[in-house]
Specification:
Number of domains: 2
Distance between the termini: 22 Å
Structural class: alpha+beta
Largest sheet: 9 strands, mixed
CATH topology of the largest domain: Ribosomal Protein S5, domain 2
Number of helices: 9
Bound molecules: (R)-mevalonate
Strand content: 25-35%
Helix content: 25-40%
Order of helices and strands: EEEEEHEHHHEEEHHHHEEHEE
Radius of gyration: 19 Å
Length: about 325
């Protein structure tokens, strides 16, 4: 893990700060729960966990300050209880909207585990951190693929093949515009609904998941060639398939079509769906270009546009004086 230390020796006045990124899916959400391939990318929105030894355990976030509390802070409570560590104070600050499909829970889990790993010298490697994070997401949610925690730990644009270690692809270099519906989406509930549909129509659902797997497969060389126009076309197909498995909504599609009509290469739901966000790939890499028009169109369609970029940076830790 990348480590930056300030050089100060007095441990009593030190905190450990660790941050980890959120992510977008280009292809493969939901299908990945059924063992299919997915492509996801870390983005430059991050969650930070600040940790210090304390006389009692506290967790502070936008939701308030609690002790171990599975109603308010289920993920962070589980992180603490999964490790054999003394009392600690943890503060969470996040740029990632919660329950939006951008991997806010995975980023909080990986930032917290990363900070605790460093603070208490637990010796976890990146791989161990991603595995521990995945186990925590599974404990809290019931079902979780390794995608969010792998991407949040490693950063970059990644091909996820469940059961096989994730492989790094060329970073997405074009602009990314996210459209937030600002409607909360429960991953657990959406994954449960898809499971019910899969139990009713296994043949239909399996062929959709196989098609999504194929999108991920043929997306890899397109990403390597930076052919974002073709990647966008495949994203549009994936959006239709996500709609078909019941995780779309009128507002998600409104934002998707607004982004496409404003010139995006492609746009689709990202994450569990239901509410949450869409993601659009857009020409250009800096200010201006297609991103301004796409962001305005998303805002005009009733969403909240977030302009972002893919990021190579995974988990980052720092020890500092308080
Ligand atoms: C949620 O961000 C993505 C899903 O595929 C669930 C998962 O991968 O754990 C719906």
């Amino acid at each position: 893990m990348a480590e930056e230390t300030s050089g100060y020796e007095n441990e009593a006045n030190m905190t450990t700060t660790c941050s980890a990124p959120g992510k977008i899916y280009l292809f493969g959400e939901h299908a990945v729960v059924y063992g299919k391939r997915a492509i996801a990318s870390a983005i430059n929105l991050r969650t930070t966990a600040t940790v210090a030894e304390s006389d009692r355990t506290t967790i502070s976030s936008l939701l308030g300050t609690t002790g171990i509390d599975y109603a308010v802070h289920p993920y962070i409570s589980r992180c603490i209880e999964s490790l054999n560590i003394p009392a600690v104070s943890i503060k969470i600050d996040s740029e990632i909207p919660v329950g939006s499909g951008l991997g806010s829970s995975a980023a909080a889990v990986i930032a917290t585990l990363g900070a605790l790993n460093f603070e208490f010298d637990l010796g976890m490697t990146h791989t161990a951190l991603a595995q521990a994070g995945h186990a925590i997401e599974q404990d809290v949610q019931g079902t979780a693929s390794p995608t969010d925690t792998a991407v949040s730990t490693m950063g970059g644009t990644m091909l996820i093949t469940p059961g096989v270690s994730a492989s790094r692809l060329r970073l997405i270099e074009c602009s990314i515009v996210i459209g937030d519906t600002e409607e909360f989406s429960s991953t657990k509930e959406l994954v449960g609904n898809v499971r019910i549909l899969h139990e009713s129509y296994p043949g239909v659902m399996d062929s959709i998941f196989d098609t999504i797997d194929h999108l991920s497969e043929i997306g890899v060389p397109l990403i390597e060639r930076r052919d974002y126009r073709s990647v966008g076309e495949l994203m549009n197909i994936d959006h239709g398939l996500l709609d078909a498995i019941g995780v779309g909504s009128a507002k998600l599609s409104r934002l998707v079509y607004a982004a496409r009509d404003a010139g995006a290469y492609g746009a689709k739901i990202t994450g569990a769906g239901g509410g949450g966000c869409i993601v659009a790939l857009v020409s250009g890499s800096g200010v201006g270009g297609g991103a301004d028009a796409v962001a305005s169109a998303i805002n005009d369609a009733g969403g909240r546009a977030i302009r972002t970029k893919a990021s190579e940076d995974g988990v980052r830790v720092r020890k500092q004086v308080i």
